[in-house]
Amino acid sequence: MNKRGLKGKLMGSGILLAVSPIVILGLVAYFITASNIEKDTQAKTTAFAKSASHLIDTVLLSESVNMALQSRSVDVMEALLEVNSGTPGEKVAKLQEALNSMQVYVRDRYEFIFVADTKGNVIADSINGETKGINLSDRDYFRQAMGGNASLDNVVINKKTGNPNLIIAQPVITGDGGVVGVVGCALKVSFMADKLNEIKVGKTGYLYVVNKEGMFLIHPDEKRVLKTNIKVEKGMEKFAALIFSGKEGVGEYELKGVKKFAAF
Fold first, then answer.
1. Predicted structure pTM score
2. Is residue 106 scored above 80 in pLDDT?
3. What domains can you pick out in the chain, each with its CATH number?
């Protein structure tokens, strides 16, 4: 895995000075293999895992920059100041119209873009206000952004659609340093999975991502996202321990009678 990672890239570029480190502790490329594993196979599989890690870093960096630019939008700032003053009106309507016009360009990768006030209430989105009024104050990404930090590593079940989304959120900060709200996007997990599937891992291999708790964040079978934990999945317990040792490596495990070889 790229040791510099997303946080280092963001800080090095000067885009964000305080960013929550992204947690991709279990980026794994694996495929069915015979009992005798050749060294070149190990090297190739490790390269697949590193390529996938780099791809995820690149995509999330790009989307984080997009949301950072949105957080500096005049429409976003004026609408939030209007709401926070207790008199929502034409500025919010103008923001809603602007976001609506963006959806056609982002719908392949986003469920929607949203803007929330300091209380966590969505004031506008890119899908005609369908999520307006939903409260996000219980979400980790909202609390991180309200603390002045970007949030890049939260996968949640979308309150509107029921689909798993990777939320990228940025604080909206005034000239004097005050946080007046949050702007973010609900990135489709299926979009990230499709990107990972572009990396071909032999004939039967695929890639998945887990969080620090061991839950799948990205998986070819979307039904397993946030529902399967590799730390307790029968046959994967020892392999999970290797992943969370904080080192790069390769390993084997047996799942439902099938031996797997993996790099992480």
1. 0.77
2. yes
3. 5-10+24-63+191-263 (3.30.450), 70-188 (3.30.450.20)
